[in-house]
Design brief:
Order of helices and strands: HHHEHEHEHEHEEEEEHEEHHEEHEHEH
CATH superfamily of the largest domain: Type I PLP-dependent aspartate aminotransferase-like (Major domain)
Shape: globular
Largest sheet: 8 strands, mixed
Number of helices: 13
Strand order of the largest sheet: 1-9-8-5-4-2-3-14
Strand content: 5-15%
Oligomer: single chain
CATH class of the largest domain: Alpha Beta
Length: 386
Amino acid sequence: MRLPILQSDPKAAYLAYQQGIDAAIRRVLDRGWFILGEETARFEQEFAAYLGARHAIGVANGTEALELALRACEVGPGDLVITASHTAVATAAAIDLVGAIPVLVDIDPATYTLDADRLTETIQLYAARGQVGGPGGLKAVIPVHLYGHPAPLPIILDLARRFGLRVIEDCAQSHGARYQGKPTGVWGDLGAFSFYPTKNLGALGDGGMVVSNDDDLGERVRLLREYGWKERYVSSLRGKNSRLDEVQAAILRVKLPDLEPANERRRQVAARYQAMLSGLPLRRPECHPDALHVYHQYVVRTPNRDDLRTFLRDQKVGTLVHYPVPVHQQAAYQSHYRPGAGGLGHTEAVCRQVLSLPMHSELTGEQLDYIAEVIRRWQPPAEPKG
């Protein structure tokens, strides 16, 4: 067994598909068409079919997928968008890119996704103030399917319909996840995916996708990703340049047919962790009975997080912290957000305690045994930190 064990391993993911990927890249090079060609069109069709969506529009990255989805929903300067503070900062950055302001709501400490009760209270609070719809009011909700676990979508959709809000799903970590059997990405008005190399469906560079079952929204995103062109060089909307390139689309076409088996391998890795770490002073991931988790990350919690991380690093086991500082405590956003109802206590506690163990579909049983054996040798400090 080779050490160190990496927390994520994009090279191993490439090697697992090397023959197909190399052939796909050669196909693009031989064809000589590198932007918005046959590979992108076919991948859009295949990804839409996989999800059961009418529209899939390839874009440059996951952040711009969210940005373009917001623009398609006509969310703009001064508008309010509800999301989580425990997320990659890209979620808040996309809201900022359209000039809107994030309203940050606490999470469920079991699933790390939006807390349904706090979300309900927040929408009701802003409605009582007359700040739903209209200029400067709540316009949308972005549920983040964090770590591969779906947010409580039926509740979110019911609230959105009652209060006239758009729902844009942040699916950057939930490729193939399902809630009540229905894939993430097709519940809301739009879904935004990232194909960053470490994702469950990862490219060898940046890439993203917006999906929708709404014909008008799908068409708006398609126009917005390329300067608003219906006719080349003539803009009908004020769009931008955000296009999935042919090489990345070809690579993703190779990997898409194996997404379901790869996700099942992740669930098997997670099940091994669950069994091997049972009885240790760690809080292991939980999964709602209606959810199909795809374990983009396997995240444990301990008040001695930094001590455990150092111990694992010394034993050549890589870890990461997703995410150490909640959005509302980051310098760029401390004065650029609105609070949700009930505070952000769970968010702040989680950010002090979460640790992502190695998780990818190429992990071996021998590596998992070693990781578990190392963790069992760890002795937490007598006085918890953090």
